[in-house]
Amino acid sequence: MACEQTKSIMCSGWFTFIFRTASLMIFWWWLTGDELTSWWVGLPVCLMAAFVSIKIFRPSALIRFSVVPRFLVFFFKYAIVGSIDIAKRALNPTLPINPANIHYLTCLPSGAVKMVFIAVLGLLPGTLCVAKEGPHLLIHVIDADMDMESELRLLETLIAELFGVERMDE
Q: If you average pLDDT over residues 10-38, what whole number do you get?
């Protein structure tokens, strides 16, 4: 449900701002350790980053934390597999590539959910979204013979579960 409909404290802008600021401050503390003078820079940076993140990713895009471990496994698996695949292709003297652009119709709603999908699909071996128009994506693939449709659907389903939204085809 959208935040405007639920009117819950969890969806309020202030709660989101405080939660994101606290999360960023914990991350800053982890990066800098016990160095207290770093907070002269860290606190303003955390506040600005939280503010900008709310402007970019509205509070309605709440993540389901129960799905995060599965998403992280997917993320790291494809980051490694994609890197190895591209490295093998680049180091192969015959340069086994068959580049193409494919058209893909996404079933995710517009907004942050679709933008996360577009960002993460670049982890799939040899893929990159080069254009977006509504639900239509133009995706560059390094090998047109690869079955990208099933991998894109898998990623799309996982992103939908992560954000707790339904795909529009369901």
A: 84
CA distance 98 to 121: 19
Q: What is the domain range of residue 18?
A: 3-56
Counting every residue, how long is the chain? 170
Residues 110 and 134 in one domain: yes
Give the 3-state secondary structure of the chain. Answer: CCHHHHCCHHHCHHHHHHHHHHHHHHHHHHHHCCCHHHHHHHHHHHHHHHHHHHHHCCCCCCCCCCCHHHHHHHHHHHHHHHHHHHHHHHHCCCCCCECEEEEEECCCCCCHHHHHHHHHHCCCCCEEEEEEECCEEEEEECECCCCHHHHHHHHHHHHHHHHCCCCCCC
Distance CA 98, CA 50 (A): 42
- 168 in any annotated domain: no
Number of domains the chain is built from: 2
Residues 114 and 167 sit within 8 Å (Cβ to Cβ)? no
Residue 169 lies in a domain: no
Confidence of residue 2 (pLDDT cuts 50, 70, 90): very low
So what's the pLDDT on residue 3?
A: 38
Question: Does 62 fall in a domain?
Answer: no
Same domain, 96 and 155: yes
